[in-house]
Amino acid sequence: MNIDLSPISQYYTRKIAEHGANAKGVDWKDEQGHALRFEQFLPLFKTETRFSLNDLGCGYGALYGYLKSKGYEVAYSGYDISEKMLVECLKAYPDTDMQLTKSASILQSADYSVASGIFNVRLDMDDGAWSEYVESVLDNLFENSKKGFAFNCLTSYSDEDKKRPDLYYANALDLFHLCKTKYSRNVSLIHDYELYEFTIMVRK
Length: 204
Prior knowledge:
There is one protein chain. 37% of the residues are buried. The two termini are 24 Å apart. The chain is globular, with a radius of gyration of 16 Å. Helix 3 (62-69) links the parallel strand 1 and strand 2. The chain has helices at 6-19, 31-39, 62-69, 83-92, 127-143, 172-182, and strands at residues 50-56, 73-80, 99-102, 110-115, 145-155, 169-170, 186-190, 197-203. The protein is α/β, with parallel strands linked by helices. The protein has one domain (6-203): Rossmann fold. The protein is built from six helices and eight strands; from the N terminus they run ααβαβαββαββαββ. Helix 1 packs parallel to helix 4. Strands 1, 2, 3, 4, 5, 6, 7 and 8 form an eight-stranded mixed beta sheet that branches. The model has no long low-confidence stretch (mean pLDDT 94). It comes from Marinobacterium maritimum. GO terms for molecular function: methyltransferase activity.
């Protein structure tokens, strides 16, 4: 599905320019929450510590740094729609052989693919169009993952008085059903960590 992501690219470019390469620079509240999101992805890899990974919406490469700090050896390919994010990623990890691409979709296969936070900011896009976009991205993750993929979303179970009109709050059960019926029998839904979101993992 083709939609104009340039306003969202500009949104994140402003964030990273204002705050730098940290959690606020990718529109997260704090570093603790940032790490907690990444922790939810670890069961996807099971006991593997060496694998190739596509990171869609890689930002400044925080997931790469997190995995490296945990002892993982990752052949890392990062994708982002903001050129400024990729520049900051290269600054943060200048001595790695990571592959970085300005793109809204994954362009090559890897063992695993992840997408953290890329569905949250929809600005003035209506829910129907954004839901179609989300599914198209999940198709892309599935097609380019040899072993499995994972993603997170803000939850529709968030407190109503705290919801923002420019953010997308997904129905976890709907997305679980989509993944279970379209992609694989092996699907996990994690909705018990202390953030207003959920994580879904799909294994092939």
